[in-house]
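Justification of computing resources. Each target in the renewal requires a structure prediction run like the one illustrated here; the chain below, 295 residues long, is used simply to show the kind of job we budget for.
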Amino acid sequence: MLAKTAGVKHLIVLVNKMDDPTVNWSLDRYEECKEKLVPFLKKVGFNPKKDIYFMPCSGLTGANLKDPLTECLWYTGMPFISHLDSLPNFTRSNDGPVRLPIVDKYKDMGTVILGKLESGCISKAQQLIMMPNRHTVEVLSLLSDDVETDDATPGENLKLRLKGIEEEEILPGFILCSPDNICHSGRTFDAQIVIIEHKSIICPGYNAVLHIHTCIEEVQISALICLVDKKSGEKSKVRPRFVKQDQVCIARLRAAGTICLETFKDFPQMGRFTLRDEGKTIAIGKVLKLVPEKD
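Resulting structure tokens:
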């Protein structure tokens, strides 16, 4: 579920220990494992025909991990590593605006931040904006996988030393942006939510913990706007009084503080989220609209 929310589009499911003497590469046992997993994966949002690929393997012997499988006559597909290499790459925009969600920060001869560059390119001596506090910063140095470099492209995990901001002025969940195209920030937004696991009903006023990109913030569901039919996508005309497990709804959420976010349509990496309560993920969702704050 968390993988789907994080943007994972393809799933390879390895059915392990198929070499066990009690199994002996049995097709019946393999199909039994598939039948147990597929309903859950469908519920989360994966399409079994397009998004999921099952394969038998043995982690102990390495069978079907790197080399083609010889012990199992009924499996004719590729081994795991070969199939992994054949999957399409995730496309990120080199020409897009800079978006670097901050995971952590510390002091080391200045202010150092850590994060993955989701969009745009960053160079040494570049001027950027830290959101949501709108500090102008300069990149003094950057490291990709602990190797110093002058430039970085999307998808790289970076360590940046910044000028113009103190370490205590930065929090995880802040975003480093292009000066001419800063990210949106606010407290209130409308979102489509899928209730995955929750024993009781959820009503307006319900509080949970929002996890969106690298930001963690308390939120409240301030209003339920409509229910959404899972199959047809049709929206109800009457506002629901509550939602429950396995239902899809559009709701208005309000964060305890100002957060950086984008609509899912414009920027999926910064528009998808999970809601957690008492240590459990109760819902997944996507941001549909940012609601301006009233004066």
